[in-house]
């Protein structure tokens, strides 16, 4: 399947329609996780403008080139970033990164300065919710407190309940020779569904 044209994706995102509406919803819901996307688009926009890039911006553009992106593709993404309305940028990115524009520089030193806040917001995002509503973090179950250090932070997901059902059993099963999907003649589905 061919990828959708970049301008179509952009228009749907800005107009909050079609697949763009779902994408926008994800960006808005996870705005604390989109910091790197903001920096990448900022770097692409500066490259498209022909503006001098900082160490970080140059490293990003070079990394994308090394991984198969052409200058034309990078500039196309950068031009779309320039057209992104500020109100939408504020919805999609945290305030620090929503304000980036081609007139500003963003360096490796600034990223290092921002990392503690990025880590703090990342740790505030629940990774798994226990049935009682609590978040389970590694170390917490042994009575210890979870580490706040970026290098040693580990989260675990503990499944407390699984209620998945196989779709094929509800539709007659593969190779059952039935179109109606009667569970009565399928011993596996019979056990799965408690019949």
UniProtKB/TrEMBL annotation:
Extent of Low complexity compositional bias: 132-144
Region (Disordered): 126-195
Protein name (Swiss-Prot/TrEMBL): Uncharacterized protein
């Amino acid at each position: 399947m061919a990828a959708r044209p970049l301008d179509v994706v952009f228009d749907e995102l800005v107009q909050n329609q079609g697949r763009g509406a779902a994408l926008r919803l994800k960006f808005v819901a996870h705005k604390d996780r989109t910091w790197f996307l903001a920096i990448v688009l900022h770097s692409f926009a500066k490259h498209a403008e022909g503006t001098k890039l900082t160490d970080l911006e140059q490293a990003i553009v070079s990394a994308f080139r090394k991984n198969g992106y052409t200058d034309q593709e990078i500039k196309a993404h950068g031009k779309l970033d320039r057209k992104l309305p500020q109100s939408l940028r504020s919805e999609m990115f945290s305030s620090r990164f929503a304000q980036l524009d081609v007139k500003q520089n963003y360096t490796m030193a600034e990223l290092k300065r921002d990392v503690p806040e990025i880590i703090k917001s990342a740790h505030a995002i629940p990774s798994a919710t226990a049935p009682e509503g609590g978040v389970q973090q590694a170390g917490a179950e042994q009575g210890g407190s979870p580490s706040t250090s970026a290098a040693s932070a580990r989260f675990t997901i503990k499944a407390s309940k699984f209620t998945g059902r196989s779709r094929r059993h509800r539709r007659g099963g593969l190779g059952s020779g039935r179109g109606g999907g009667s569970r009565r003649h399928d011993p596996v589905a019979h056990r799965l569904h408690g019949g």
